[in-house]
Amino acid sequence: MAEDRAGTPLVEAIREAIVRGEFVPNQRLVESDLSTQFDASRASVRAALLELTNEGLVERIQNRGARVRAVSLSEAVEISEVRMVLEGLCAAKAAVAVTGEEIRELQSIGASMCEAVAEGDLLGYSSLNQELHRRVREIGGQATASRLLERLRGQNVRHQFRLAMHPGRPSVSLPEHLAIIEAICTHDPEAADAAARGHLRSVIKALKEVDRSGAPPAR
C-alpha cells in the first residue's frame, strides 16, 4: 500500500534511484509519476522530495516542481576534497577495527577488482569500487562520517560514473585501492589514512583532466 512506502524507506528508494543513475541530472521529478513508480501517496512523495532537497540531491524550481540537481565540476572537486578527509578517517578507523574475517573479505574484493580490470569489465570494476568504499566505512564504524559520505556520493554520482568509465582510469585507481586494502589489512591506520587521501587526490586530478578532454558522459 502507499502508506507502507512512506517516510524513510521512500526517501531511500528515490535516493538510490538517483545514485544509480535512473534519474539523470536536471530530470524533472513529477510527483504523480513517482507516486505510481514507488507505490506511495502524493503526500509521501512530496515529503521525500523535500528531504532530498535538504540533502542536496534535488532542487525545487519555482512554478516547475522538482528536478535532480546537477553538480558542476567545481562543486564535484569540493565534494571530493571533503571526501578525502572523511575517507581517510574511515580507512584509519577500519585499520584498527578490522577482523580476520573482514581482512579476507577485503582481500577478496581486491582480487575481484584485479580480475575486472584485466578483463576490461568497467561496470564490474565500478560496482566493486563502490562496494570496497562501503565496506571500509562499515568496518571503520564511524557512523557520522558514513552518513556524510553517503550523501556526498549521491550528489557526485554523475561525475563518479563518468570518471569510472574513462579509458585508462581503472588501471590508475586499482593500485590506489589495493594500497588502501593492504594498509587496513596490516592494521596500519596512518598508512590507511594516507592511502585513502592519496586516492582522492588522484580522483580530483582525474576529474579535472576528464573535464578538459570534453569527453561526454559514458551513458
From TrEMBL:
Transcription recorded as keyword: yes
GO molecular function, one term: DNA-binding transcription factor activity
Cross-referenced PROSITE patterns: HTH_GNTR
Domain HTH gntR-type: 4-71
Pfam family, one: FCD
UniProt xrefs under CDD domains: WHTH_GntR (cd07377)
Transmembrane segments: none
Keywords for the protein's UniProt record, in alphabetical order: DNA-binding, Transcription, Transcription regulation
DNA-binding keyword on record: yes
Organism name: Streptomyces abyssalis
Protein name as it appears in the record: GntR family transcriptional regulator
SUPFAM superfamilies: GntR ligand-binding domain-like, Winged helix' DNA-binding domain
InterPro entries: GntR_C, TF_FadR/GntR_C, Tscrpt_reg_HTH_GntR, WH-like_DNA-bd_sf, WH_DNA-bd_sf
